[in-house]
Specification:
single chain, two-stranded antiparallel ribbon, TIM Barrel, alpha/beta, 2 domains, 11 strands
Length: 448
């Protein structure tokens, strides 16, 4: 499937796509394009060993998508409508994709088309970009290629999730840590991430005597990074920025913390500048869930009262879309309608989708054993003394997606389709439970 040269790339496009000028293409035969052509193009955008061919493949996917009315977009307009009370009653699912990215995106788009939904987000966290070996431009290309493949039309929301400050590095050299995160933000925006969640909750200092002083490093850093985003966003686009007041896995957030963060943040952002559109809080969950010795996930009691109370304050006082729930994908399916009933505007789903890939009977057993052996060899230093083998594997298998990316991507078609079918069914469930069906018209109305 690998193109040996730029010439062979253009040969593969013949009859399907014609480049009119640099930055503009004409689709000649969409049926042909949505067959093997787009499959080959996205494979080469990810795996081609020639930098020129790989980068051209990515650019052409963006141009082709644009010519079909498919564009990476900011969800800002819709979230502003949430804050004004012009729309609501649903929660936006934001899905982290760590591996089998193109196929997973395809399954999500199929579900979106079936459910007439436009309110869903593809996202990848700062840490995931590293261990899954997916840089922003590549991740965006996978999302757009999948939209082309499935015949989806309209804005595609792609998000940098948990663009997080490292507390230890921040303590050693605050300016250097902020500068490093600015580099990632710039790469993200250049790569088509027009939704970015800043997470400086890691530097909240609970030793301080007042809540405002506890939150000060958080809101001041978030303001600095928001201003950087505003200075680097494309003309005509307002990047949707999220803030976070409580680190996921820590103590539950309070209204006092929300007000302290928002009042401090708004005082720190230059007047006339757009601020954040949403706020992430802690309500009792943990990323990936709490793993029991047998490898299963402990049941967690989510504080829905906190979600309801803080969502109300965030909307009525600060005109935000509402609060964001992290670490939700391992919760029982029947609990998801409670996020919507209690006013959460966005819910993040990651590990559950990873588990669908690894635990599906279609996933090759020999490949899984090879990945687990790799984890034991390369990541044994992450194993806690009390960890069982099941706990260690469950907590580290996310790090198998990078080194084995191509092996997973090129599993035979029947295996991939079996996994895609389960993903699609799960997304159907989320659209239903989060009341996010039939939202395409809202996206058309509010996303310009």
């Amino acid at each position: 499937m690998e193109f040996k040269s730029v010439g062979s790339l253009y040969d593969a496009l013949k009859g399907a796509v014609k480049e009119v000028t640099e930055g503009a293409v004409e689709v000649l035969d969409e049926r042909l394009l949505r067959g093997a052509v787009i499959d080959r193009l996205i494979y080469n955008a990810v795996f081609n060993s020639n930098d020129e061919v790989r980068d051209l493949s990515m650019r052409l996917i963006k141009f082709i998508a644009g010519s079909l009315g498919i564009r990476s977009a900011s969800i800002q307009g819709l979230y502003e409508a949430f804050g004004k009370g012009e729309c609501g009653g649903f929660t936006v699912p934001a899905i982290n994709i760590r591996g089998l990215t193109y196929d997973t995106c395809r399954a999500i788009f199929r579900s979106a088309i079936k459910n007439n939904s436009g309110t869903f987000i593809f996202e990848i966290a700062k840490s995931e970009i590293g261990y899954t070996e997916q840089r922003p431009a590549e991740y965006t290309a996978c999302c757009l290629a999948a939209a082309i493949k499935e015949g989806y039309r309209g804005p595609v929301f792609i998000q940098g999730d948990h663009f997080q400050i490292n507390a230890k590095k921040f303590g050693q050299n605050k300016d250097a840590e902020i500068a490093d995160l600015k580099k990632l933000i710039k790469e993200g925006i250049d790569g088509g991430f027009y939704n970015i969640d800043i997470d400086a909750s890691t530097v909240v200092d609970l030793s301080k005597p007042t809540v405002i002083e506890q939150q000060r490093p958080n809101f001041e850093t978030t303001a600095i990074l928001t201003e950087f985003i505003r200075a680097n966003e494309p003309a005509g686009t307002t990047v949707s920025v999220g803030g976070e007041i409580g680190e996921v896995g820590g103590k539950n957030s309070t209204e006092e913390e929300l007000r302290a963060f928002m009042d401090g943040f708004l005082a720190s952002v230059p007047k006339g500048r757009k601020g954040i559109s949403k706020i992430s809080i802690q309500t009792g969950t943990a990323h990936g869930g709490v793993v029991l010795p047998d490898g299963t996930i402990a049941k967690v009691k989510v504080d829905f009262d906190t979600i309801a109370r803080l969502s109300k304050v965030s909307r009525e006082v600060y005109r935000l879309s509402g609060v964001v729930q992290h670490g939700a994908s391992t919760l029982p399916d029947e609990s998801f309608d409670l996020f919507t009933k209690n006013g959460a505007s966005e819910v993040h789903l990651a590990t559950g989708f990873q588990n669908i890939v690894y635990d599906n009977p279609a996933f090759p057993e020999d490949l899984k054993k090879e990945i687990y052996a790799h984890l034991t060899e390369k990541h044994s230093d992450e194993r806690k003394p009390a960890d069982t083998e099941e706990q260690f594997i469950y907590k580290t298998r996310k790090k198998g997606f990078g080194p084995f990316k191509e092996r997973i991507w090129t599993m035979d078609q029947a295996r991939r389709q079996a996994i895609e079918a389960v993903i699609e069914k799960k997304v159907d469930l989320y659209f239903e439970r989060l009341n996010a069906r039939n939202t395409k018209d809202l996206v058309t109305k509010y996303i310009k």
